[in-house]
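Handout, page 2. Input:
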Amino acid sequence: MTVPNFYHSAADAISAVNAAYDPLGNNGVYHFGTTTGLMVPSTIIYTTTERWRQFDLFTYGPEESEVIPPLYNRHYTGVMRSNAAIMHIAQIDMDESLKQRWIGEARFLRALYYFNLVRLFAGVPLILTDYQPMVNPGGITVDEV
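Output:
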């Protein structure tokens, strides 16, 4: 499915927003690894296992291949889908109140994904379009995100 073949109707708009929600679901953003990765560095969970102790002490790195890439990728899948919905639903000729609601939901989802990303990784690439390459241009702070 390409952009010229999609984003023509209200049904396309709701499908785009549903796709932005999808990374939250089964085996998604709040899957065990993500949830644990978010809670261990807090006071919610205390662990003595070395693997999770690295999260508790904020000493983990990209070599945590079982946890880090899926955490990062699931969140950015949500960001990119949210961006696509925000950009393209605005162009659909449909009920204005529904259009604004669905764009608002996509903006909330993007904010939620970035909220988690900065809690896990600090400064991360800030991508606000659906075609921008995911390259960290440097100098992006948590406050900017």
